[in-house]
Amino acid sequence: MKRIFHFAVAGILAASITACGARSGEPATTDPTATAASTNAAGQSAVQDDESAKDVVKVAASNKDFTTLVAAVKQAGLVDALSNAGPFTVFAPTNAAFDKVPKETLEALMQADKKADLQNILQYHVYVGMLSESLLQDGQTFNQVNGGNITISKKDGKTIINGTATIVATVKASNGIIHVIDGVLLPK
Amino acid sequence: MKLSSTNLLLTAASAAVLAGGLQSCKSKAGGVSAASNDAAAKVYVAPGKHDEFYNIVSGGFNGQMSVYGIPSGRMFRIVPVFSQHPENGWGFSEETKPMLNTSHGFVPWDDLHHIALSTTKGEHDGRWAFGNANNTPRIARVSLSTFKTEEIIEIPNSAGNHSSPFITENTEYVVAGTRFSVPLDNGNTDVPINTYKDNFKGTVSFIGVDKTTGRMNIDFQLLLPGINFDLARAGKGASKDWFFFSCYNSEKANTLLEVNASAKDKDFIMAVNWKKAQAYARSGKGKKAAVKYAHNVLDEKNHTATSTIINEVLTLDPKDCPDMVYMMPCPKSPHGTDTDPSGEYIIGSGKLAATIPVFSFAKIQQAIASKNYDGNYDGIPVLKYDAVLHGEVQKPGLGPLHTEFDGKGNAYTSFFVSSEIVKWDIKSLKVLDRVPTYYSIGHLSIPGGPTAKPHGKYMIAYNKITKDRYLPTGPELTQSAQLFDISGDKMKLLLDFPTVGEPHYAEAIPAALVEKNSKKIYKIEENQHPYAAKGDNMAKVERKGNEVHVMMTAVRSHFTPDNIEGVKLGDVVYFHVTNVEQDWDVPHGFAVKGANNAEILIMPGETQTLKWTPDRTGIFPIYCTDFCSALHQEMQGYVRVSPANSNVALHFSTGTNKPAADVAAKK
Lengths: 188, 667
Fold this sequence. Notes:
The structure holds 2 protein chains of 2 kinds.
Chain A: H1 2-23, H2 56-61, H3 67-75, H4 79-82, E1 88-93, H5 95-99, H6 103-109, H7 115-123, E2 126-128, E3 141-143, E4 149-155, E5 158-161, E6 165-173, E7 176-181
Parallel strand pairs in A: 1-7
Antiparallel strand pairs in A: 1-2, 3-4, 4-5, 5-6, 6-7
Chain B: H1 2-28, H2 39-43, E1 53-58, E2 65-70, E3 75-79, E4 101-102, E5 105-106, E6 112-120, E7 123-133, E8 138-143, E9 149-154, E10 163-167, E11 173-177, H3 196-199, E12 202-209, E13 216-224, E14 228-234, E15 242-248, H4 257-260, E16 266-273, H5 274-282, E17 287-299, E18 304-316, E19 325-331, E20 334-339, E21 345-350, E22 355-360, H6 361-369, E23 373-377, E24 380-383, H7 385-388, E25 389-394, E26 400-405, E27 410-415, E28 420-425, E29 431-436, E30 441-445, E31 458-463, E32 479-485, E33 492-499, E34 506-510, E35 540-544, E36 547-555, E37 558-560, E38 563-568, E39 572-579, E40 588-592, E41 600-602, E42 607-612, E43 618-623, E44 636-642, E45 651-653, H8 659-666
Signal peptide (chain A): 1-21
Region (Disordered) (chain A): 24-47
Organism (chain A): Cnuella takakiae
């Protein structure tokens, strides 16, 4: 609230500068560049760059197996954050993994009033740091972006998260690594 | 707590706003800033928007080039050229040290005065920026794709390489003329200074530029009288085969030039038919002279520079090469000589003269054809002043220095003494407008101003004196540039902006010609550095005698390896760090405690090497110096240095603690 107040006051004061100019009989500026001040509000996901390797969002978006995940990331407003420098380890459930979640639950999460819940679930799938699969050891826990912990277990050479989701593939991205998992992780 | 910080912010914001209000009201009341009322809107580039022009600015005594946006005046980058740059390791890393090699050995500094942007058919092509080293004569070529210095060539038989680097219409040649005449390198150089008139020579070097690669080579040198060459411009259009050099000290003084080089009414502008000179060079009229100079090239594939010493140069003596060089009298120690966009008019700015002479290329040709000479200077024909003169701008101002053009028939000349820029009509020679500069302008720049097709719109003044223009910072002040709108009949002051170093000449070029070519990353698969580790699995540490080579990777957010043991006192350690990122604007840095050089910054896909000679035993931290990620502060490691006779085995790791290291530590 106080922050909003501060900006509002600053805005009013800033407007008074123009008034100072206006008093001297000069028209206020009509230069089109001057009005473009805050229109360029897109985050890092909007950076035009065909040369760099793809970040975790772009890697996921370019794979048909992740359409549900990508839609959820967009709905949760996490695209820009995950396009950031990271580094991120994303445990990425496939569309098939999302299909295991009751349809009505999933649809409810995609509603605007459930954005915080959706963010909580998606952030539970992200770790800040580069965890290659070889670093994941049986019994380790990692603190995820949402504040919750995940637990790693190993069985038959496979890496399993929270005893429910198995890493089925790993893809490197420019700003981190994606472990493809066959289940959705639910925050405890 | 929150309340108080909010209040503080609010107070600061109000104070700033009130101060701004005061200033704007003051300027309306006719204050000294004299900026036009719509100035703020004209220089405002909204957040996230790009400037219309790049301004490539010489750094003078900082030895670098810097890159600004016009019209905002925002600085984007300092490109290290002739001076070491601890900020990114230029001249400190093993790969870049050879770039600063000369016949005098490693020279870590110079004085970069002038910029020349490459042209094709006389128009900007956005490929390279050339810069000169005044002190230890060199020319550098900077890529406008990587904004890195790719090549530096030393100039033999030269001292004070001020008349440089200026280019021909298609960048066939970049020239380097001597300010200081000196005895030639291969003769008797140990002579009394007061034998100047007998023993000192000036030279102008024509350095060929490869059309495709930009690689430079000294094609030939002209051996000239012992006068001071100051600035130069090539011809354009009809005059494209010619080059014009301003000359002062035709008195050939070797002491107190302040007085002794101003004795004559007129010095010269030297006209060189470079096409003819090239033909003489090709037809064997030249003589090979023994010299020694360095040619340094940075290879983009292995990110490594090599320095080659060359021992010969081809010289041309005007005595053996008729119709190649002429002198045109020009009043009072000319500084700038500038060619208008058509190539017909050559403007000489006698810095102590009361007029600005404008020479006509057509008349120069007629005078040469009819041998309309006024004697000769050291055997070089002197053309009659009146025969080659288009006319003089009368009483333009005091101390004319440099002239740029807007492509609409107007010339803009800077005046140091009267601290102003004067706009005048090239054909009628009438003064059209004048504006003061704050204070004491040197060079000026109009986008495309020296080319056959100026882009106009803006003009930047590079002032020599700052005094009270900014918040004071003690005796040493930043240099001050000023931006003018020249789109209308009258020049309008828009903006003051501070610059680094001491800018001399600068050029501005439309962003559209440059930004699309700007490189984002170096492709890791194209990295041919011999010590590159292109992935964590290639990282290793090797011992070669007392050299320890660490082939290290950097990625968000760790080094591989980050624990190194088995280095011994007496070893020289080379950290070859490869940034394996392939993501724009994600450099990593590397520093080690006690290093006697600098950090290095490694761009994505690049390998750079820091040499380190430990001076004591112990544990030495290493870390990433460029804030790369959320875990940047975790991007660190240790190197253990043991006594020379230690039996600690060479060992390296990341993310594991092997027992061997602990066992060794107990011994």
